[in-house]
Amino acid sequence: MNFRGKVLSNYGNNEKFYDLAKQYRSHWGEKIFVMNETYAHLFKHASKKNEYIPSTELKINNLEIKEVDAEYVKFRFESTCSIRLSQGKTSSEIILESKPTHLKDIINRNVFAAQVGGFITSMQWLPRSLESEDGISYLALGVISGEKGLSEVNAINPELSVFNNVSKKHLQSSIQIWKYSAHLNQLEMQNTLVTSDFGAVTDIQWAPIYNDDDVLGVLGCGFKNGEIHLMKIDAALPTFGVVLEPSYRLRSNIKGSSNLTCFSFVGADKLLSGTADGYIMEFDLPLRTDGDIMQPNFKTFLSDGPISSIVSVPVSTKESEHILIINGQAYRGVAFASLNPLVDVFCPLSEKSTVKPTYNYILQDVLLAHNPENSNILCLRSLQDTSSTMLRLDSHITTFKLSETVGHPFMLTGTDAGDVILMNYTRKFFSSKGGNKVMVPLKLWKFSLDDKDSITVSADYEKMNVESPIQASYMPWQIMISALAWNENVVGSSIYAAGTASGILLVERLDPNFQN
Question: Does residue 26 lie in a domain region?
Answer without folding.
Answer: no
